[in-house]
Amino acid sequence: MSLKSEKLRNAIIFFVQNDKTVKLTKLMKLLYYLDFRHYQETGYSVTGQEYSAWPKGPLPEDVWAEIRNKENRGCGIEQFLVAQPAPPGIDDFGYTLWLLKGVKFSEDPFTDRELRILHEVSEIFKGVPAAQIVDATHMRGLPWETTIRKVGEKAKINYDLAFEGVDPDDVERIREDQQDRRELDALFEVAL
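Above: the chain's sequence. Below: its structure in token form.
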């Protein structure tokens, strides 16, 4: 399993274990906040997921497809998570989430910064209903709203939109770090 897959797996486990109000919609938004907050600080997402601008906010399509549609998108979610139709009257795309027995969170694949952001996102939204988190993602000037307004519904959300309002000097430093990392990755790829 790749490092990004391990991080995705453990982020999902963490969010579901630490907040009993995490259902399908809320999980989609927590992953979004994890990835975009980390990207804002470093220029890299934690899970490697791409997000699309769906009507109820940002959606990691591969995770959604595996949980909601039982499609194999390479995330391996069925190995640790069960999605069951929610009781009538719960508007969360009809899905409640449970971890399989014995599944445990591991912080091993995460950096200290990733763990800090994982905990922050969880604490900020702990107990908050999914509808309120959806509303928060729709605020003017945030990546989902900008994508809907400029590109349209179901378009990919550009991670660089996370830099809105960030000091230009910080963005320049992050861009330089991204370039250094690409060059280093290319060097190791050639060496292998």
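DSSP finds seven helices and four strands in the chain.
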